[in-house]
């Protein structure tokens, strides 16, 4: 537990008290409201809060982030606490979970938007427009996920999909679907090495231009993510 506390202090910094409050809310209400399983209560920090927050290592400063299928607020809420420079929108289709997310955002006084709907819905896409980063945790297989998430990204933006030990197998299996969705070559990365006992595995997919079908035009890749505030 001491190691977890040290990691939490390093990851959340000045936001540690907010992270502790979020953990307390999940512990008190998470199971009864169907947000987490009973076995998860004793491992909230390492499996959920820290596991979510460390993906901030892969996100540039002061960019716009959409958390698709936010559910209990993972990874969006821990990310918002650890990285207050980010502009985060939580997208969730279930009314009871939207209610929870709204309560948490208000309770923790976070500058976070909560939007009810599904990422693939036209109304949701119209409301969001295109952003720099999309995150997703335990939402869907990669083939489906890229179809929902990549249209929310501007060219050069990236999707961070939190995955488990089968991430590389999933990347190999769904590579063609990623290409069809105008994604670049997926890469598998670990976040939180040296901070958490089990680093968080993420699949990173960059949004690139669709391949031109006429005149043999070549597809152009863009590198990096540009902040709206970068001018």
UniProtKB/TrEMBL annotation:
InterPro entries: rRNA_ssu_MeTfrase_G (IPR003682), SAM-dependent_MTases_sf (IPR029063). It comes from the Bacteria. One of its GO terms (molecular function) is rRNA (guanine-N7-)-methyltransferase activity. The keyword Amino-acid biosynthesis does not apply. The keyword Cytoplasm applies. GO terms for cellular component: cytosol. It is an enzyme of class 2 (transferase). CDD domains: AdoMet_MTases (cd02440). It is found in: Cytoplasm. S-adenosyl-L-methionine binds at residues 69, 74, 119-120, 137. Its EC number is 2.1.1.-. Keywords: Cytoplasm, Methyltransferase, rRNA processing, S-adenosyl-L-methionine, Transferase. Belongs to the methyltransferase superfamily. RNA methyltransferase RsmG family. Specifically methylates the N7 position of a guanine in 16S rRNA. This is Ribosomal RNA small subunit methyltransferase G. It comes from Amycolatopsis alkalitolerans. The gene is rsmG.
């Amino acid at each position: 537990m001491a190691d977890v506390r040290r990691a939490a202090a390093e990851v959340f910094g000045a936001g540690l008290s907010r992270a502790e409050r979020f953990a307390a809310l999940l512990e008190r209400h998470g199971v009864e409201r169907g947000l987490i399983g009973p076995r998860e209560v004793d491992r909230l920090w390492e499996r959920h809060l820290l596991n979510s927050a460390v993906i901030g290592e892969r996100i540039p400063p002061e960019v716009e982030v959409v958390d698709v299928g936010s559910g209990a607020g993972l990874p969006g809420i821990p990310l918002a606490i650890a990285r207050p420079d980010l502009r985060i929108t939580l997208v969730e289709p279930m009314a009871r979970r939207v209610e929870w997310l709204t309560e948490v955002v208000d309770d923790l006084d976070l500058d976070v938007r909560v939007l009810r709907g599904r990422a693939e819905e036209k109304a949701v896409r119209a409301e969001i427009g295109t952003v720099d980063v999309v995150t997703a945790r335990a939402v869907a297989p990669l083939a489906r996920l890229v179809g929902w998430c990549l249209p929310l990204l501007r060219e050069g933006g990236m999707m961070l999909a939190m995955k488990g030990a089968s991430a590389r197998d999933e990347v190999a299996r769904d590579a063609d679907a990623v290409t069809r969705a105008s994604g670049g070559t997926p890469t598998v990365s670990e976040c939180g090495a040296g901070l958490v006992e089990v680093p968080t595995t993420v699949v990173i997919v960059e949004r690139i231009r669709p391949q031109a079908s006429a005149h043999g035009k070549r597809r152009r890749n863009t590198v990096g993510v540009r902040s709206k505030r970068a001018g």
